[in-house]
Amino acid sequence: MAPVTQGISPPLARRSWVKIIRDQFFKNWSDTAITLASLAFIVLLLQPVLHWILNEARWEVLGPNLAILLRGRFVAELAWRIWVCLGLIALTAGLASGTWSGRFSGGFGAILALPLLLVLVPIFEMNTRLGLLAMSALIGTGFLVGKYGPEPYMKNITVTLLALIIPVGLVLLYGFGQDGPMQVTPPKLWGGLLLSLILALTGIVFSYPLGVILALGRRSKLPIVKMLSVIYIEFVRGVPLIALLFMAVVMLELFVPNRFPNIEGIVRVAVAITLFSAAYMAENVRAGLATVPAGQVEATWALGLNSVQTMIFIVLPQALKAIIPVTVNQFISLFKDTTLVALVGMLDLVGMGRAVLGNPAWLGTHKEIYFFIGALFWLLNYSMSYGSRKLEERLHTGIESRA
Amino acid sequence: MNFRNLSVVAFAVILGIVLAACADAAPAPAEMESSEPVESEAMPSARSTLEQVMERGNVICVGNAAAPGFGFVGEDGSFSGFDTDFCRALAAAIFGDSEAYEIRPATASERFSVLTAGEGDVLIRNTTATMTRDTDLGGDFAPTTFYDGQGIMVRAADGISSLEDLAGGSVCVATGTTTELNLADVMAARGIEYEPVVFEGNDETIEAYEAGRCDAFTTDKSGLTGRRAVLADPTAHIILDETLSKEPLAPMVRHGDSQWEDIVRWVVYATFLAEELGVNSENVDNMMESADPNIRRLVGADGEFGTKIGLDNDWSYNVIKMVGNYAEIYDRNLGPDTDFYIPRGLNRSWVDGGLLYSPPIR
Amino acid sequence: MASVVQSQARPPFWRDERVLGWLWQFLVLLIVVGGAFFLLNNMATELRAQRNIVFSYSWVGQVAGFDISESLIPYDSTRTYGRAIVVGILNTLQVALGAIVFSTILGLFWGIVSISSNYLARRIATIYVEIFRNVPLLVLLYFWYSGLFLQLPRLADAIELPGPTYLSIRGLYIPWGTPTESWNSYLLMLLLGAICFAGTIVFLRQRELRTGQVYFKALWGLSAFLPIAVVGWFALPAPLTLSQPVKEGLRIVGGNSYSPEFISVVTALSVYASAYVAEIVRGGILAIHHGQQEASSALGLTRLQSLRFVILPQAMRVIVPPLISEYLSLTKSTSLAVAVGYPDFFHTTAKTTLNQTGREVEVFLLVMVVYLSISLMTSAVLNWYNSLFEIKER
């Protein structure tokens, strides 16, 4: 290999702080100019923003409305059911990272840090903070159990939990029976962040198998199957989600027979989101399938496996593993897209925010409310995308180190 | 078992399902064909609305959650208002229980879809009766419960006293309403240039008006009064004298179920008639003994008028007893003692010079 | 291969992969067509029975009756629904074009900053990208619109900037040129200039091929175009007159105006998309191996030349396809304009027109067709570009 012409930086110990700062920020006149411009930019932008956050903003709007922003009109006495759901998710997340990575990585750090960061939000009540701490503890416990528990059992348990999260979570939230601690809480009471999360989670989970089927269909050698898959994928990807949501709300009734019972609003938008997400998921899976080397398939023929076996045992596992980071990214983008349901009258986080703004008592607090909603989304999305990036790096290095 | 066998089995199972589905689906076209000749006899769905309501045990009214005085959510989460009271009257007539109702809140633009889709039994949501809505939108209108007209609200400080003063200004209006169309009509007729700023619901619209996005806000006068009452400073806004349109607000039912339409129609008429004949919730029990045959027929002491519309004969008695006559409903929600006072104007009984005129029950 | 298959006994037909394949296809088709028939049949029955509606587009020619606040073509309430829909499509394209231009400029800027050698500048770019990629567009849009624009003063107290430019809750008013009688002649002059521009470029290109000498063709072309444009401007009696915004009662006349809805939608979309564009640009430049730069300087190319002839052509191949997809997704996102009441295509069609006519099926079919055609046209451009610049393997 040719020698690298760039100078190799000297060891850190020999550099003085003055030199580091000079090298980093004031190497030559253009560098100096950029540094000064950046500093000016920071000061000019940050100063009014900080001034607003610290002095002008009426943060008192959040306190009394926090509960409805986070969980909608879900009955306060039954809110523990939401916590149980969150705990289940936290435990599974911890178990999954403990079982499969078994190493304290940046991605796991992000998962663990999220509830701890949320504890710091000043407007939360004591109980909320305790709940968040419990979430952290559950993630940590899950991680340790997953790491040190007997491996095959742990994998089975984690997979079972992953499969059960959605149905168990929905049953927990919906409840059963007339009264008591598990009394039915109809979906029209679900709102705020809770609704956004439910829509994103159900969307990603249900669109996953649909996406796999569509991707296989698109790669199929059978012309009709291929054509239908392509039509579906391109059709859905060509239309904005909001159009699908409006159709689901306005037109779905037309397509089902009269004798059918009415469909809940949340089901309609969840169906629209799932169908929308499936088309994008299909493209992800297709990209994942393309990463599986052709040699793998040829090798399975040599082993005498047929095409279905090859697909299920050899190709799909590799393809789906390759798209884990992409799937996380799609979950993030889906989570952001769920805000559109506010435009069809659902009271998700944004819809709830608008409802609060409709209250004459809180006139003119738009900036505060939208800042809060934006910050919440940012925190959740950023920690997820950070985790997925770390995961991506690890999967990537994993492949390279083997090669 | 190897996979080829498995796929054959899967194939067979799916084929079976499809065949079963076909067998299930096959009668559907036949049903449709046979129903075609009787289509004009107006029984579109398998069961009539009244049957569905009876089975469900309550009546679902498509209503408004954000029209102060007409339909709004109180602090405790329950609905109240003028429109809501007519929904209660309907529940009283059908079930003898004025609480056997549910409000399905809908925005102005989705309300008709919600009704025709069958999510509600009747639309009582300050809805203006128009010919298009009666025909194209698949509805039928019951008698007008409130004679309204479109008005314009402006800031007192702007010194606007007529539509002409608004030239060049911007007007906030909610989409999907007749208001939007009337505004365009009137402004075009008078040759006034203006900037329409269109929003989805009245909430967003009034919000933008209050923020100063528009110089004027227009909706039905009834709505204006209620809206002004909840503005930060109601006295800073005035409602112009101009009336842009006729707005007869009426309950709407799905087209083609005349039995259900009759029920809604006569419940409304019963409230008119009760006021005209001096029957109210307090004296209705005494009126059972009344000598006036008109009153006796109204309260169900004589005749079998309930069964003619598929209800019990005490239907109108329940309406008056539990909800009241028109004057009581009006005063409770829009009367001088409320925050949303609107003078009765045209909404008086015909005997007092108003427009409320019910055909006799006989 | 074929002889091998034939030498074996053919499997029974229920195990023959080809027969099974056709059966599967037939089955899928049956399910899809059957399902579609079932749904459409339901719809037709429902429409006929409940509303007495027959599928038709005759309403497109009827008078719309509603006003639209901003329009690129003449429109008033006596025009037809069809006209209103076209107004909406033009508004959508206008917003999309504005957002594409601004997001590209912003994205290029932040993309280049994010690979700068300056630590501080790089950090700022990263923070910018991370903030706007992780916040929903709708929240951004509402923040911009209700949080910032609706808090501006009313017209009477408008913020006056030099120009005069007025910024108020009614929008932004800037001075603008009004064409005079000589405008058309000036356009002809510009056309002449454009021909000179193209001629210069073609000429230099030929010369380049003949001599191997490299020219900055665009620069030479501009130096042919600009004199004509400038001379034309002064030779003709003022092709444009300056129209300045003037306050007059409740409105501002003259100049050009942009409504707060338009500005909010364009700003929110631009900022949101610029974070993605920045990432695309950054990825594109980083994808070019360092060795390329070194090799081209070893060949004696100057920095500018290596950028123009080595780095950029390769980086563009990486950048353009995702960029076009980003533009497409941005165009679809303009439908969010409905949230702040900007009369884009979705607003005028799927909201106002649908509300006034009650024709869900026809309206949504139209919405689908329009968005799909935009999307198909974009894919066509993308494919064309890819085929133009794909690495020719031999």
List keywords for this structure.
heterotrimer, A: 403 residues, mainly alpha, 75% helix, disordered C terminus, B: 362 residues, alpha/beta, 6-stranded mixed sheet, 3-stranded parallel sheet, 15 helices, 14 strands, disordered N terminus
Summarize the structure in words.
The complex is a heterotrimer of chains A (403), B (362) and C (394). With 403 residues, chain A is mainly α. Chain A is built from 17 helices and no strands. Chain A is 75% helix and 0% strand. The model of chain A is unreliable at 397-403 (pLDDT under 50). Chain B has 362 residues and is of the alpha/beta class. In chain B, strands 8, 9, 10, 11, 12 and 13 form a six-stranded mixed beta sheet that branches. Chain B has a three-stranded parallel beta sheet with strand order 5-1-6. Chain C is of the alpha+beta class and 394 residues long. Chain C has helices at 2-7, 17-51, 81-113, 119-133, 137-148, 183-211, 217-235, 260-287, 290-298, 303-333, 345-357, 360-389; strands spanning 159-161, 165-168, 171-174, 176-179, 240-243, 246-248, 251-253, 256-258. In chain C, the strands form three sheets. Chain C has a four-stranded antiparallel beta sheet. A two-stranded antiparallel ribbon of chain C has the order 4-5. In chain C, helix 8 (260-287) crosses helix 10 (303-333) and helix 11 (345-357) packs antiparallel against helix 12 (360-389). Chains in contact: A-B, A-C, B-C. At the A-C interface, helix 2, helix 9, helix 10, helix 11 and helix 15 of A face helix 2, helix 4, helix 5, helix 11 and helix 12 of C.
**Could you say which structural class the secondary elements and strand pairing of chain B correspond to?**
alpha/beta
The DSSP helix count of chain C reads 12
N-to-C terminal Cα separation of chain B, in Å?
A: 79 Å
For the biggest sheet of chain C, the summary is: 4 strands, antiparallel
- Bin the helical content of chain B: 40-55%
Instruction: Tell the overall outline of chain C.
Output: globular
Q: Note the total helix count of chain B.
A: 15
- H-E string of chain C: HHHHHEEEEHHEEEEHHHHH
Strand order of the largest sheet of chain C: 1-2-3-8
Point out poorly predicted stretches of chain B: 1-45
Radius of gyration of chain B: 25 Å
Give the mean pLDDT of chain B. 82
DSSP strand count of chain B: 14
The percent of residues in helical segments of chain C reads 55-70%
Low-confidence stretches of chain C: 1-5
Q: What structural class do you assign from the helix and strand content of chain C?
A: alpha+beta
Q: Which series of helices and strands of chain B comes N to C?
A: HHHEEEEHEHEHEEEHEHEHEEEHHHHHH
Strand content of chain B: 15-25%
Q: Which two chains share the most extensive interface?
A: A-C, 60 and 60 residues
Q: Tally of extended strands of chain C?
A: 8
Largest sheet of chain B: 6 strands, mixed
